[in-house]
Amino acid sequence: xxxxxxxxxxxxxxxxxxxxxxxxxxxxxxxxxxxxxxxxxxxxxxxxxxxxxxxxxxxxxxxxxxxxxxxxxxxxxxxxxxxxxxxxxxxxxxxxxxxxxxxxxxxxxxxxxxxxxxxxxxxxxxxxxxxxxxxxxxxxxxxxxxxxxxxxxxxxxxxxxxxxxxxxxxxxxxxxxxxxxxxxxxxxxxxxxxxxxxxxxxxxxxxxxxxxxxxxxxxxxxxxxxxx
Length: 228
Fold this sequence. Notes:
By secondary structure, this protein is mainly α. It is built from ten helices and two strands; from the N terminus they run αααααααβαβαα. Helices cover 71% and strands 2% of the residues. It has a two-stranded antiparallel sheet with strand order 1-2. The radius of gyration is 20 Å and the shape is flat. The two termini are 35 Å apart.
């Protein structure tokens, strides 16, 4: 596949077809655990690993799986991948694993993962499927981390609290307080705050997209005038 097509896959995953912003998939875990940066990053990386591994495996076996049974096979692959990730997190990131709780095994039911397996990995090469899974996951993770930063900042007045859960004891100093004696804003860390925050981010993306579209129209019109 050409570099241009790879760039298109990357752009789709990070922006144009972002699972959270555009497809609006995986919103249950996204809204539930994005009350801090570290929680969002932990779930985002687990989801990214699942997307990469499942996309690669689906692409590898795509020629041998009969169409009638492809969905159960894809779900089995995803469930096996999530089980490995869940056990690994329980072993090496136990405290973070306990905080994320049920939302780690629920990655199996994330529609974004089965959608990429069915719509992309089952029809494309291993390398393309790997890139697609990686950047779809990173796009989802970016939304989780950004939303987590907004909610943590407004809700707790901090950033990167409990960073040691992911990066070890040396990361305790990563956490810092932006506002002294800040009492917090409860709405930001409750589910309604997550909906409001996500809506705000989607609105910003739509504004940026409209500006780009308007600029492209102007450029196209100028090009037509010059060539005409």
